[in-house]
């Protein structure tokens, strides 16, 4: 059986990782994947990706790096994403992974106008999502956790916009029958979201944001989390 890749483009901060674990663990739990089904490739540390045709699919994680830096490992991963798209490999990008997929496929990524978006946001689904395989049965809006400074400013040609937040119109994109990405974090639980806000509180104060309100507004995000598990089921990844 071909493995499901977790393409690791970064790590959680040390303080968060020590208490809550790290990206691969969060994605495995959220998607309902068996550990023996996974292969983790740390591209940011220089590990080499297998040929796209050798995997059942891939999740591309978040990162503290910026897509606009065009780091060598990031640009190499963008090339792998293009190969995976050509091979119709199922892909699910998150945060940095969302931005990297857009960049790889010809869209534009840069800093989000107005500064960072962080905390539990209301995500509004687009009218066309009802016909999307992942969109069936979704409410008009749902909650999701976010933390990012850069974002997708222009999606690639042909990409469908499936959801947005008040400040980011490109929270959920579909690039083809097997490839989607989201700016929000379906793998986060509420405690992880709170940990990120605690860590960023000084930045938030400096930027004039109400860190206490953002912290108090954190809530569970079961529908956002369900999207990842539904994608895993649709593509035969899930272990249950």
Automatic annotation (TrEMBL):
PANTHER family: GLUTAMINE AMIDOTRANSFERASE YLR126C-RELATED
Source organism: Rhodanobacter sp. FW102-FHT14D07
Domain Glutamine amidotransferase: 56-195
InterPro entries from the UniProt entry: ChyE-like (IPR044992), Class_I_gatase-like (IPR029062), GATASE (IPR017926)
GO cellular component: cytosol
Gene3D superfamilies according to UniProt: 3.40.50.880
Protein name per the record: Glutamine amidotransferase
Domain of life: Bacteria
């Amino acid at each position: 059986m071909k493995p499901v890749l977790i393409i690791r483009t970064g790590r959680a901060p040390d303080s968060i990782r020590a208490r809550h674990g790290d990206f691969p663990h969060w994605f495995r739990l959220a998607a309902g994947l068996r550990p023996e089904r996974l292969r983790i490739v740390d591209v940011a540390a220089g590990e080499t990706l297998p040929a796209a045709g050798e995997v059942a699919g891939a999740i591309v994680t978040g990162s503290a790096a910026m897509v606009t830096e065009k780091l060598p490992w990031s640009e190499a991963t963008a090339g792998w994403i293009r190969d995976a798209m050509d091979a119709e490999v199922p892909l699910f990008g998150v945060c940095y992974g969302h931005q990297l997929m857009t960049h790889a496929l010809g869209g534009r990524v840069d800093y989000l106008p107005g500064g960072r978006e962080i905390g539990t946001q209301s995500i509004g689904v687009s009218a066309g999502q009802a016909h999307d395989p992942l969109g069936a049965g979704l409410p008009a809006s749902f909650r999701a956790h976010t933390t990012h400074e850069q974002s997708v400013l222009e999606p690639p040609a042909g990409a469908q916009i499936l959801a947005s937040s008040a400040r980011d119109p490109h929270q959920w994109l579909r690039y083809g029958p097997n490839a989607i990405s989201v700016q929000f974090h379906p793998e986060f639980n509420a405690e992880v979201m709170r940990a990120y806000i605690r860590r960023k509180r000084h930045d938030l104060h400096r930027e004039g944001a109400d860190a206490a309100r953002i912290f108090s507004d954190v809530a569970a995000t079961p529908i956002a989390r369900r999207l990842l598990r539904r994608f895993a089921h649709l593509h035969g990844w899930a272990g249950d």
